[in-house]
Amino acid sequence: HKSHMEAMKIGVLGSGQVAKVLASGFLMHGHQVMMGSRDPKKTEEWKSKSRNGQTGTFDEAASFGDVIVLAVKGTAAESLIRAVADKLEGKVIIDATNPIAESPPVNGVLSFFTSLNESLMERLQKIAPAAKFVKAYNSVGNLLMVNPMMTGGRPTMFICGNDEKAKKLVTEILNQFGWEASDFGKVESARAIEPLCMLWCIPGFIRNEWTHAFKLVKQQ
Question: DSSP readout, 2-68?
């Protein structure tokens, strides 16, 4: 179901599963999408499957999008943002990255290369201070990112970022994608939101369960 949201130009930085799922979701909802990658071969298959999707370099996708989806490996995020920072000024960046280290999980628990007193999003915001980062889509697997049908109703996406207007826009996008957004404040809150990725992955690694999502319940 298409909502009444204005069609936007979306630049997706990344060509992995998360990037492909979100790019296809934006296309399905009537937006224009360009997927950017270092290696054009990685985006060819997606482009052939999605009739209206465009592909290009990281630079081209960063220039194309009014809204940018950052969906690369956490280990690649800082150098990429450094490289395209001048294209991101004033733009809303949906930051779906997690600071996952290269080491394997221990008892189902991923390792992060950040500490609990900093987050990857804080590092990225420092690299591109004029960009409007909003953490989102980091706390669920790609199978459930676009219009998940959950028995318990709409799941909650915990978001944070320094710019209120940017968070309102991301809230509308999440709404269109079948989620409710819960605003958890400024960029520092990513210190708590990024580790939700660890929590989400544990049942997957230990029991091969990957079809859950988080929901915030409130007392009336």
Answer: --SPPP-EEEEE--SHHHHHHHHHHHHTT-EEEEE-SSTHHHHHHHHHSTT-EEE-HHHHHHH-SEE
